[in-house]
Amino acid sequence: MSTRKLTLEEKVKIVQEAEQIGFTETSLKYNVSSRQIYRWRDKLQNGGSKALSYGSKIDPELKALKEENIQLKKLVAKLALTVEIKEELLKKTFLRTGKRF
Predict the structure, then answer these.
(1) Owning domain of residue 16
(2) For labelling alongside 61, which of 19, 24, 51, 70 has CA 20 to 30 A away?
């Protein structure tokens, strides 16, 4: 069985179709493993369509920035949850004691 190299446009089309109708159906239709389609999708999300071209690498600086961004988002979410919990506790405390802010 010969392996055919897909063009950049074909890969993008396959990923878009997989997101619409499902990865399993698309992988059977194009005779490509669903794992490969997931990898293409991840590359598209991280580095754009340029990252799908053969032999391309994601810029390490861009990758580091994206990882830092993810960590910062998690930190902000954690802090927001902490603030929300503290506000709820304060409301309960003021309701019990009858005092207001």
Answers:
(1) 1-57
(2) 19
Whether 49 and 12 have beta carbons less than 8 Å apart is answered as yes
Instruction: Give the span between the Cα atoms of 53 and 6, in whole angstroms.
Output: 10
Residues 91, 63 share a domain: yes
Determine the Cα–Cα distance for residues 43 and 40; give it in Å rounded to an integer: 5
pLDDT > 80? residue 54: no
Give phi and psi for 55, each to the nearest 5.
Answer: 80, 5
pTM over 0.85: no
* Distance from C-alpha of 49 to C-alpha of 34, rounded to nearest angstrom: 18
Look at residue 2 and tell me whether its pLDDT is greater than 60: no
Q: Is 9 exposed, middle or buried (0-12, 13-18, 19+ CB in 10 A)?
A: exposed
